[in-house]
Amino acid sequence: MSFETARDILTAVRAATQRQPIVQNLYVASFCLVYLMNNIWAARTLFFYITIPLALIGLNFTVLRATLRHPIFLLTAIYFLILILTSLVAPDVRAKVIGDHLLQSVRVLLLFIVTADLIQRDNTFLRTFGLFLSAAAAIAVIINMLAFYDGARLASGSIFTIRLEGVPGANVYYNPNVVGVIYAMACVAGASLLASYRLSRWQTGVVLISTFLLFVATMLTQSRGSILAAIAGLGIIALLGANRRQLVWLGLSAAVVFAALLLWTPVLEVMAERGASLRPMVWSHYWTMAQERPWLGYGLSYDVTLRHHGANLLSAHNIILSAFVRGGIFAAIALLCLIVTCLYMAWTAWRANRVVMPLALMMAGFVATAVDHEMTATSLGWPWLLFWIPVALCLGASVRERPQPIPAAVRSGS
Predict the structure, then answer these.
(1) Among 17, 36, 58, which residue terminates a domain?
(2) Rg (CA), the chain
(3) Sign, CA torsion 161/166/169/171
């Protein structure tokens, strides 16, 4: 193939991706597959080997320059770099672990670049993303419930006392805390559409049903962090949403679900009986670890697992404390600055265009990760849905250098 032929092909592909929403649809499909498939490889293959290359071919270079110098992009790169550098002088150094983190860091940053480009290129991208992600997650909830609540569980009446979790062969993830948090994030993504966009009747119906199912499923996982995340995200939507009429439907639905669970099921009672779980002990243990190596941390390769009465606790259950343990005080400061910057940028973007999804998702992700999880660079999976996608949306929504007119689909009806 000659150079001229290759250039003509790339030009044709670039033109096609800019005329048609090819990349947008592939992007959305990649994350829907995380919910719909029983393995992660289909989503990763579609995103890394098809979506990313096509997106890079059609990049708007003006948006790319703005993205590369954006504070969110720079702070994320600094955080990843600190983790890598401190891992080189940690007690346990493994080249494979550090090399993998470097690869995943590049992938996360590519996610930022592509997401920002799609948001700037297409005013309907966030609406499409939220609509299909919440619908796909709701379908996954139905499949999960049918597989999990078999005849024995239904006959014993344990539907509200046993934590909903993933089922091998039906879901990618099984841990109820992970299942709960990805349901909560999809719930917030769908609900945010009711607050920011004038949806058609069928779209409103799909979002309401999806949000309802996802909120119920989140409650049934009994994951306190996930439930708090959903409530935080929905609270932001209720406070800042522009479309009051559709917000009334959202509020009534949430109130009915919560009241029904409170009055007629033991779900809240069962969660209350678990108290604070092991978190105070876990936080104390990892705080002690962080104080022993406050400047450089233990690195990415060191096994920081806490073993307690047969349970393996893999992280500090707080991403700032986990960053402190892994990369020292500077990693913790970089991650904290990243979170604050994301919230601020999402707030300024909401003031400019009244689209609440980035801020609501970022607040939900922040609340969830304040009481669970560790956040380093990983491949596409639940950490992206919980944290890196919200960060990418905050970046993409705020990358414009001056406010743009509010799209007609976003304006509130009176």
Answers:
(1) 58
(2) 22
(3) positive
Provide the residue type at 292 as one letter.
E
Which is nearest to 138 in space by CA: 213, 233, 36, 62?
A: 213
Distance CA 110, CA 119 (A): 14
251 & 380 share domain: no
Name the residue with higher pLDDT: 2 or 325.
325
> Is there a single domain that holds both residue 224 and residue 137?
yes
Task: Tokens 């306190």: give the residue.
Answer: 224
Which of these ranges, 3-12, 37-46, 347-356, 361-370, has the smallest mean pLDDT?
3-12
pTM here is: 0.90
Amino acid at 135: A
In the predicted structure, residue 80 carries a pLDDT above the cut 80: yes
Q: Name residues whose C-beta falls within 8 Å of residue 35's C-beta, 6 or more positions apart in sequence.
A: 133, 136, 137, 139, 140, 172, 182, 186
Stated length of the chain: 414
Residues of the domain holding 75: 60-122+280-403
Helical residues (DSSP H) of 88-161, grouped into ranges: 95-121, 125-148, 151-156
- Which backbone phi and psi does 38 adopt, to 5 degrees? -100, 10
C-alpha to C-alpha distance for 28 and 187, rounded to whole angstroms: 16
Query: 306-308 and 311-313: which strand pairing?
Result: antiparallel
Positive or negative torsion for Cα 79, 86, 288, 294: negative
Cα-based angle 115, 137, 253 (whole degrees, multiple of 5): 110
Please tell me whether residue 33 adopts helix, strand or coil conformation: helix
Q: Got the DSSP string for 310-379?
A: TEEE-S-SSHHHHHHHHHHHHHHHHHHHHHHHHHHHHHHHHHHH---HHHHHHHHHHHHHHSS-------
Of the listed ranges 96-100, 144-148, 249-253, the one predicted with least confidence: 249-253
Q: What pLDDT does 404 receive?
A: 43
Find how far residue 263's CA is from the centre of its chain.
31
| Last residue of one domain, picked from the residues 18, 33, 58 | 58
The span from the first CA to the last CA of the chain, in angstroms, equals: 59
DSSP structure class, residue 60? -
Q: Is residue 408, in this structure, part of any structural domain at all?
A: no
307: helix, strand or coil: strand
CB count within 10 Å of CB 105 equals 20
| pLDDT-above-90 percentage for the chain | 58
Contact 397, 349 (CB under 8 A): yes
